[in-house]
Amino acid sequence: MMHLPTIIILSIILNTLIGSFLLSLYRLKKQKTYLYWCCSCFIFVLAQVTASLRAYSDLNLISHYLADLLIIIAPLAAILGIHAYNNTEKSKFTACIGVLLVSVIILMPFYSTSFAQLYTTLVIACSFCYAAYALNKLHVGRVSHFLLLQICFVIHALLMFCQAALLVSAPTSVIDTQQALAVILISHIVISTCTALVWPVLMFLESEQVLTDLANLDPLTGLLNRRAFLNLSATHLEQANSYQKELCALMIDIDFFKKVNDQFGHETGDEALKWVATKIQAQLREHDIVARIGGEEFAILLPNTSEKNAQALSERIRLAIKNQPFIYKQHSISLSLSIGVIKRTGDSNINDLLAKADKGLYQAKHNGRNQVVVAI
Ligand SMILES: Nc1nc2c(ncn2[C@@H]2O[C@H](COP(=O)(O)OP(=O)(O)OP(=O)(O)O)[C@@H](O)[C@H]2O)c(=O)[nH]1
Asked: Which ranges carry the GGDEF domain (predicted)?
């Protein structure tokens, strides 16, 4: 079996390192979450040190009472850190102080008994359940990133519930129970350390994702922006050129969009753009690439698609907009699209292909709008 004192020393060293790392991240990023999690790590270290004193001293007030309180504060600080991510930690502060005060009072008369151990275990278990729930409520860009952290919290809570069940069901003098409790204690220390480590990694992934989104996505519609569209399309076009595969491009422009802005205001215009984007997206397959490449202009790249199918798709998109008015703030606004279609020929590059699709679009406008023109 693992040697408990070694595990405790390792955990103290690791949590001190992680806490210091989180502190430097806080200094760098000024994100309060890092500060709360840093406090959580240092408090956990302090709890381990004070609890370890049990082996050397009879000062139960410190080695039991203070240690139990510290071990309760550590997950509470982590919970505040989760809420600090979207600046809602102040509303939870009173609840955390409440839990702490109740614990101060409840543990006071019992701090060196097994009841104190049971109480502390249950409070930690509930705190970790709440932390997993709070992560679920956190509105972050990539929820999947936080699944790993939620799993850590849930495993931790389950471990603590197992420990509570053991404490209730068996007398502590039974050797097997003592060993099981030691295993749980070790797992608790290991998983606390892992959880502390996972947060900064996830935060890093999250901010990387935000930067990537900022660089590649149109903030209004959430579609790709021009830059990302050109990069992605160039790769697809190269492949289509190499393997002589069918590929088409579409240029789409909303007709008389200036009138929408002039008549109903810019906010309505923005909502109309989002609505059109959703309608276009609904007609596409998963591997089609769509972007908002200008004010009221969209582009689509259709890999493995014949000219006939691209024309049929363009008609479906046109009709999806024409046949249903855009409704916003009691206004019913009729919109229409002009669309230019072009198929890949020879070794065309993406700019040439889009320029040709643009000619089709120009022709569609010239012919009276609300139509699809296949360019040559
Ligand atoms: N609300 C809103 N309007 C935008 C945005 N980007 C561009 N526009 C508007 O889109 C309009 C485009 O107008 P024009 O280029 O004259 O074209 P149009 O009125 O659509 O006419 P045709 O294209 O010739 O059919 C302008 O009024 C721009 O201000 C945006 O992000 N939000």
From this structure: 245-376
Q: What is the pLDDT of residues 71-90, one digit of tens each?
A: 999 999 999 998 998 788 88
The mean-pLDDT minimum among 5-14, 215-224, 254-263 falls in 5-14
| Beta carbons of 131 and 153 less than 8 angstroms apart | yes
ipTM for the complex shown: 0.97
Q: Which of 254, 260, 261, 366 to mutate to test the pocket of ligand 1 (most atoms within 8 A of CB)?
A: 261
Distance between CA atoms of residues 18 and 42, nearest Å: 9
Sheet of 337-343, strands arranged across: 289-294, 297-303, 247-254, 337-343, 372-374
Q: Give the span between the Cα atoms of 239 and 243, in whole angstroms.
A: 6
Helix, strand, coil percentages, rounded to 5, for the chain? 70, 10, 20
DSSP letter string over 109-157? Answer: GGTTSHHHHHHHHHHHHHHHHHHHHHHHH---S-GGGGHHHHHHHHHHH
17-33 burial string, b = 16+ CB within 10 Å, else e?
ebbebbbebbeeeebbb
Tell me how far apart the alpha carbons of residues 44 and 15 are, in angstroms, rounded to a whole number.
Answer: 8
Q: In this structure, are residues 41 and 16 in contact, taking their beta carbons and an 8 Å threshold?
A: yes
Using DSSP's 3-state secondary structure scheme, residue 198 falls into: helix
Q: Which amino acid is at 189?
A: I
Question: Residue of the nearest CA to atom 29 in ligand 1?
Answer: 258
DSSP code of residue 57: -
| pLDDT tier at 358, thresholds 50, 70, 90 | very high
Q: What is the pLDDT of residues 288-342, one digit of tens each?
A: 999 999 999 999 999 999 999 999 999 999 999 999 999 999 899 999 999 999 9
DSSP 3-state of 328: strand
Higher pLDDT, residue 66 or 137: 66
DSSP 223: S
* CA pair distance 4, 54, nearest whole angstrom: 13
Question: CA–CA separation, 14 vs 294, rounded Å?
Answer: 51
Provide the mean pLDDT of the chain: 89
- Report which protein residue has its CA nearest ligand 1's atom 8: 295
Known catalytic membership, residue 206? no
